Amino acid sequence: MKSNYLLILFLILSSFGYAQGYDVGGVVKEAGSGLPIPGVNVQVKNGTIGTATDMDGRFFLKGVSSGATLVFSYLGFKNLEYKVVSSSSTLSISLQEDSKVLDEVVVIGYGSQKKREVTGAVSVVDSKTLEILKPVRIEQALQGTVSGVNVTSQSGSPGAALDIRIRGIATNGENGPTTIIDGYVGELGLLNPNDIESITVLKDAQAAIYGTIGANGVILITTKSGKKNSKAKISYNTYTGFQEASRKLNLLNATEYALLLNESYANGGKSLPYTSVTGLGKGTNWQDEVISNGVPIINHDLSISGGSDKVTYAVSGSHLDQEGIVGQSKSGFLRNTARVALNADVSEKLKLKTNVIYTYFNRKTLTENGLGSVLFNALNVPSTLTPYTANGDFTLVPNTTGLGNEIINPLAQIENTNNDYNFKKLNGNFALEYKLIDGLVLSSSMGFNTSNSKSRIFAKQVGYGGKVFDVVRSSVTQNAINDNNYSFDAFATYTKTIASDHNFVATLGNTIFKEWGNGLFATGYDVPNNSWDFADISLTTGILDAKTNSAYAYDERRLSYFGRMQYDFKGKYLLSAMLRRDGSTKFGPGNKVGYFPSFTAGWIISDENFFGQDKKINFMKLRASYGTLGNDQIPNNGYVSLLSGEGTYVFDGSLVNGTATGQIANPDLKWEEARKFDIGLDLKLLNNKMSIVADYFIDTRKDLLIPNIPVSGITGNYAPGASAPTVNAGTVRNSGVEFAVDFKHDFSDSFNMSVGYNLTFLKNEVLEVNNGTGFIEGGSFGVGQPSPSRMQVGLPIGYFYGYKTDGIFQNQAEIDVHPSQLALGANAAPGDIKFVDINKDGVIDANDRTDIGNPIPTATMGFNLQLNYKNLDFALYTFASVGNDMVRNYERTLSDANRLNYVLDRWTGEGTSNSVPRVTTGATANNVFSDYFVEDASYLRIQNIQLGYTLNPKISEIVKITKLRLYAGVNNLYTFTKYKGFDPGASNGDPIGGGIDYGFYPIPRTYLLGLNINF
């Protein structure tokens, strides 16, 4: 009977509890902006009832007991708890952004860690930064946002490559970091920026888990994916704008040019070329003729994402069309991308992840960055010449001694340039995760890249008046290249906690990587009608006796094993050890395998009892790392000699084409090693509003793989297709300090601010060069002069090697007491440059050349500001480089070429100038390579400024739009610098010779109007 009473009592209480259940719903929004947040997890605390908000931020729960607590949680926002009462049927919840959680989880390679536990030098750029910067190429988003990273442009032309250097130039071979996209090796510059969720940069021994490909640093890309339990989210982003030159050079106008030329001829004892300058006026500004304003750029991006309880998806497509400010459509770039990402929980234990990206681009280019380029001609053609003759033909530049035989009309050059490059790439990965037992996860991933490119270049039969660029016979060159690779990763991750305080994560696995491809190159002569429309080898009829076709094929592989053990005690003493074994077919027997260990450690000091409870410093972590990484980024088959060269010879009176050896073999080739040391400090202050990260690092690169080491010409290494061997012949060290500080604060519900500043000091020094001469030369200057850049012990890699100057000779008396300069090509005269006798032997000659400049900046820094006030947002991004020098090599030293207007301050008599020499057609030594041509290229650049307005959600929701934002911005707004050239931040990418300016295509200033719409 007693049990029946208890049963009745239980039923009464149960029915009472059920009667007290409520249906609770509402909407979750961002505090401040009021925008709805989809995918927020809504859970009854200590209960089983839960749901997630839909695309409009709305949620609904049934049967919630009065007095129960709802927990609202979402990545990037602070958790919020709300107690349900009888009147809580419809709720309006506002979540506050939590800067601590935004980047709580950091991808570190074959896994992830909470940011507080990371013991390496790691930096993260999130999707919000990318949305503001609107980079055409992803690399641009790293400039100024990540300490220790320097991004330089090879050209401002659309689609041009960018060079990334992490903590300096470590080798004179391949210096760029490896990009890992969702677990597989990919190409950063081909990605659609709107597909990126986050960019993680591994700068120290943390990258050792990637072994041979991690020596130059690793960039980990995480792409966007759908969210579980969310309706389809449609996002459309577009911007359109126009471009113009961010900088033009100050050239002499026609009158100034004629007067200067008369003076030059008079000083050389020649008759004046212009007997009258009346009526010349300003003449032709050739820069204005070849550089256009209002050049269009347009971008569209559409994405759809969402998910159920088991499956998430993300589909996106983008279209970018950009014309060049030089030559417009003749230097255009078009890129289309498409991506499909699918994640599925196949079962409670098995997960599937896929991500496939297709990229197509078309690029047209002009001759640039060198002698005879379009900009080179625009800077050197006299302003007294007109672009066209009276009958409408292009004006021919005279073929005289004073103008040489390489300066031509740049407008004619643009008109006669015809080329087309098409590139298609399919890449992606398929990954599986299986939870074998509690704590043990097995993972496998297959990544792949396959690309095909075709190019067509038409050389029109044309004459420029006896110049070297005259084309006597029309031709078309067509290339077809196929490149492929795949990687297979299989690894196990075991997580275990012992005695509640000892936490272990062990990772063990292997990687198989194969890379193969082929290329075919052919040239046909005598194109029908001498026209681009008929420029196809199948239509050509002419032949040559010399060999015009070639091909290649390659097949390279790596087999690697890796292991990592991560340990922490009570979450405050952190240790990690990694070992990678790599085997590469780029090295011969005995040298194929390399072992690369690394160690990292951390101590979270703020968790110690002695730190106290009332902390002004909220978080403090000391960390250190040391490790060895490998590098095999060299040309294929360097340890053997292949028949890849050309051998053309005369046999029985006839020209015969044969085959010769290519690169000279070096069977002793071995791994290049990067030894990385780092010690860092992470701080959070002022209630986590301010974060500070500081690092000191030393990166020593040993056994540098140096290609084309000079050897005797008897070996035939100067024949077509042949080359000198690759040798382990050097050591380079980069050391420096990084510092970054970020401050974020919500002043009110309507106004918040975010400020960031980072600073990097870097010292580069060559420690060893073992090639027989003690130095390696590179770059070029002028015509026929020795190489101006060197790699030499005790100096930075690529430093400038030439004559040091000491002003201008003011009179003959100064010349008489000065060491003779005749060995440089001419006796000095008043008004000529005075060179320094470095070795004090009383003669100025080649032995007096010395260090006259460094292309590597002493310091780089970035400053970023973001402000949000109600529905308005403002952003400013800047970057600065200090201490880098650049060689002015875009001026032809011929007497009749046009000049920059600094020459107006030339020496014209005693006391008139001590910096710019006289002008003359006579022989002088003024044009030999000296620090007269080396300039301080330090600069401060306003990279991006943007102002946006987000429509009030109450208004946009009427038409079922969850977000509508309009913005206006300017990229590359202005560069503050004393450098005279187009771009002080440009480089041709060569570690030895990269700081020589041959007339870099200027980076455009771009004005943008954009629209973001979310449905």
UniProtKB/TrEMBL annotation:
Q: Name one GO cellular component term.
A: cell outer membrane
Entry keywords, A to Z: Cell outer membrane, Membrane, Receptor, Signal, TonB box, Transmembrane, Transmembrane beta strand, Transport
Q: Which Pfam families did the record assign?
A: CarbopepD_reg_2, Plug, TonB_dep_Rec_b-barrel
The protein's predominant localisation is: membrane
Q: Does the keyword Membrane apply?
A: yes
The biological processes this protein is annotated with in GO are: siderophore transmembrane transport
Record-linked Gene3D superfamilies: Carboxypeptidase-like, regulatory domain, TonB-dependent receptor, beta-barrel domain, TonB-dependent receptor, plug domain
Start and end of every TonB-dependent receptor plug domain? 114-218
- The chain positions of domain TonB-dependent receptor-like beta-barrel read 379-791
Does RNA-binding count among this protein's keywords?
Answer: no
Instruction: Name the family the entry cites.
Output: Belongs to the TonB-dependent receptor family.
Q: What is this protein called?
A: TonB-linked SusC/RagA family outer membrane protein
